[in-house]
Design goal:
Among the domains are: 101 residues; 135 residues, Glucose Permease (Domain IIA), CATH 2.70.70. It is of the alpha+beta class. The protein contains nine helices and twelve strands.
């Protein structure tokens, strides 16, 4: 039935051809539909492929962009790293340059400081040398002045003595003929010869006792000249003026009397002093001891000792130098000697057994204390503490070890002390002390390090080395090795120090 709208009218039947055409049309429509569907599928697949390609391209572009970005970032990082490395290297180079500059500046400052210190030390040494030269010149001038004064006084006294001798000779020549004639007349008349006159006179004072055979002996004493004192020019003229001639027959008599008396004392004294202890105990008669003629002569010479004028003594420095010169000459005349220990009664040996363990560092009469322990105004350091005691003495005066000990140090000064320095270590009553000795010259050192010394041994000689205005011993006493000092004089007094002459 066809699609006619008129009902009841049947459609004519289709022929085979129509059927075949209809089938072919349906098949074609079906094929067309399938083809369209296939085309649509292909188009979809193409679109999907294109989209996939687009996505792939997008991903590739994204990957490329990411790679590019990564490369850029890596390049930037490398650039930054290179920049940082370059900056670090530049900073290191700048630091090295700055360090080198700083080191050069430090070396330059150190060199300048060392040069300044050397210059200051040289100036100080030059000033010290100039001060020492000035002090030495001043001391030499003072010593020369003192020696000139002493020489003038000696010449003046020699002139006075020669004038007195000439006057005595003239008086004796005038009285000699009359005395001989009087004695000859008395002998011819049978009268005994007159005994020697022992009446005290200016030549034989009453306070000088006779010794030996009690014969009057001519004693040389100093006479005070009458009238006003003579001037130096007059004294020099008198000293150069030849003395009045004297007969030799009268010049040897006083000398013979003195020599005879000395001979008697020299022979009789030892003979009476050789008696043993038993002989002295059994003797019933004692021998009176008489003063030696030499003692009287020494006393007379001491009474006529030279005295420096008031003008020279007014200067403290000159007076000190004069005292040192007199002390030095006294040391030359009276060397320290020890009496023998085998005396007749053994008293000397008994006394020596009780000698003190500590002695003075310088012999009595050979020094004076010039600067004490404590604060003072030093010519070198100003107002400062003086750590020792200064014993002013002539150059070359012996310095003694104050006690038994060991030489700890010998060398240049240390801890602010001048050269040379000798340190002794002592053990006294269980306590340890150290004595320091300063200002000696190298050729005046008599000990070496490690040497053992006894109290009273000579360890050095007084000098004026280093910071010194004159020959003296700077003596210190230390209680430890840390530089703790005490008053040397107090220490010596507390330990009962005696003169070195007592250590025999």
């Amino acid at each position: 039935m066809s699609g006619s709208a008129v009902p009841g009218t049947p459609a004519p039947p289709l022929t085979r051809r129509q059927l075949r055409e209809a089938e072919r049309a349906a098949e074609a429509a079906r094929l067309h539909t399938a083809l369209e569907a296939q085309r649509a599928d292909e188009a979809a697949r193409m679109r999907a492929a294109e989209e996939a390609v687009a996505h792939s391209r997008a991903r590739l572009r994204a990957a490329e962009e990411a790679a590019r970005l990564r490369a850029a970032e890596e390049s930037a990082a490398q650039t930054r790293a290179a920049t940082e490395r370059a900056a670090a290297q530049a900073a290191a180079e700048r630091a090295a340059q700055e360090q080198a500059v700083q080191e050069r500046l430090t070396r330059r400052r150190a060199a300048e400081k060392a040069a300044a210190e050397r210059a200051a030390a040289e100036r100080a040494a030059a000033e010290q040398a100039a001060a020492e030269r000035a002090a030495a010149e001043r001391v030499a001038a003072e010593q020369a002045a003192a020696e000139r004064v002493a020489a003038e006084q000696v010449a003046a006294e020699r002139a006075v003595a020669e004038r007195a001798a000439a006057e005595r000779a003239v008086a004796e020549r005038a009285a000699a003929p009359q005395t001989r004639r009087a004695r000859a007349a008395k002998v011819a008349a049978g009268a005994p010869a007159a005994a020697p006159d022992t009446t005290p006179t200016a030549e034989t004072p009453a306070d000088i006792p006779m010794v030996g055979d009690q014969a009057p002996t001519e004693v040389l004493v100093r006479r005070a000249p009458s009238g006003p004192p003579a001037s130096r020019r007059a004294l020099r003229e008198q000293s150069t003026r030849p003395a009045a001639p004297q007969r030799r027959s009268r010049g040897w008599a006083p000398r013979a009397a003195v020599l005879g008396t000395l001979g008697a004392l020299t022979i009789v004294g030892p003979l009476t002093g050789l008696a043993g202890a038993d002989e002295v105990a059994s003797a019933s008669q004692t021998v009176a001891t008489q003063a030696s003629l030499l003692e009287h002569l020494d006393a007379a010479a001491a009474a006529a000792a030279l005295v420096a004028p008031d003008g020279l003594l007014a200067d403290r420095t000159a007076a000190s130098r004069a005292a040192l010169m007199q002390t030095s000459r006294a040391n030359e005349r009276h060397a320290l000697t020890c009496a023998p220990l085998d005396g007749a009664n053994g008293v000397r040996a008994a006394v020596t057994d009780r000698e003190s363990a500590v002695v003075m560092p310088v012999a009595a009469g050979a020094y004076r204390l010039s600067s004490s322990y404590g604060f003072r105004n030093s010519p070198f350091t100003g107002y400062s503490q003086h750590l020792g005691e200064d014993f002013a003495a002539p150059k070359g005066t012996p310095i003694y070890a104050v006690a038994d000990g060991t030489v700890e140090y010998v060398g240049v000064g240390k801890d602010g002390r001048s050269s040379m320095l000798v340190i002794l270590k002592h053990e006294i009553d269980g306590e340890t002390f150290y004595t320091w000795h300063v200002h000696m010259y190298p050729n005046g050192i008599r000990v070496t390090e490690g040497q053992t010394v006894r109290g009273g041994d000579v360890i050095a000689e007084v000098g004026s080395n280093g910071n010194s205005t004159g020959p003296h011993l700077h003596f210190e006493v230390h209680t430890d090795t840390e530089g703790t000092t005490i008053d040397p004089l107090t220490w010596l007094e507390e330990h009962g120090a005696v003169d070195v002459s007592a250590r025999c």
